[in-house]
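hey so i finally got around to running the thing on that chain from the lab meeting. sorry it took forever, my laptop kept dying and i had to restart like 3 times. anyway pasting the input first so we r on the same page abt which one it is
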Amino acid sequence: MRGFAVDEFGAAGSIHELDVPEPDEGFVRVRVAAAGVNPADVFMLKGFYKDRMEHRFPLVPGADVAGTVDAVGAGAGQWKVGDEVFGGLGKMVVGAGSMAEYTTASTKTIAPRPAGIDAQFGAALPLAGVSALMCIDPMGLKKGDVIVILGAAGGIGGFAVQLAKAAGAHVVAVTREANAAYVRSLGADEVVDYGKGDIDQRIHEAHADGVAGIVHAGGDKDELAQLAELVRKGGHVVSMRGGADLEHLAEHGVTGINVMTMVTTEALERLAGLVSKGTIKRPEIKTLPLDQAGEAYKEIEGGHVRGKLIVVP
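ok and heres what got predicted. didnt touch it at all, straight out
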C-alpha cells in the first residue's frame, strides 16, 4: 500500500510502499477514506514524544481516521467488514498511523459513522471534537456566562465555540480579523483580533465584571497568564497547550485544567449525536491528496489553519 512516512525524526517525509497491516486482537483494519491532520502529529514527527512512547520507522503519522472496516482481529466485538467508522487509532506505539491507504484502529476508539457525517467530516471530528468536549464540559456553563476562546478558528477552538454557544454562553472568540466572519458563523458573539494587541485590556473593558472561563486552544502561556487574571472566582482556565498554572489559579479560586485528550467510542458517539441534532456543524475543511501530506504538515506547523486539514489517500 501507499503511505506517507518519514525515515528519521525531522525528515521531510515522502510516499513509501508499505505492507498492508494486519489487525491485532481488539483491533480492526480500516480502508482509509480520509485522515485528519493535527498539530500533535508535527510534534511526533520531530521526535518530541520519543521518550514517552515507542516509535517505529518508517514512521507513518496520523491519529484521526474515517473509512471502512476491511478486516477484523480477534475480539473485535460487533464490528464487521464493510462497517463505516470514524475515530482515533488507540495505539500505544507510534508509526502505523492513518496517512496511508490502510491502517488499524482499536475497537475502543472508533464509532459508527452515520450517513450525515461524510468521511472528511468524520476524520475532522475525533481529536479536535473530543478535545473541545473535554474543554467545555468541566466548566458547567450557564446561560449568559462569558467565555473566551483562544484559537477560535482552529479545529479545537471551532468546535469549542459551538459547544459553548449551545450551552448558552456569551462567546468571545480570539482569532485573526480574517477569521471573524467564520467564527461568527459558528456562534461567536464577539471577535477580538489578536493582531491588534492588548487582548486582555480590550476584553476587560468589554467585561469589567470578569469572565467565567477561558479555553486555551491557541496562543502562548504568557498570553494565557494575562487573560487568566480576568477569570472570576469559581471560574475555569482550560488549556490544550499545557499552559494552565494550576497552583496559581487555585490560589485565586479558579480551577485550572491542562487537557490530555482521550478519544473513546462513547465520546465519538456523543459527537455524532450532537452533529445529528445540529449542535455541531461541519467546520471549514481543506482537503489534500496523500501525495501532498508533507505540505499539509508544513501548513499546520505554520499555524493559522482555519477549520481542519484533511488528507485523502
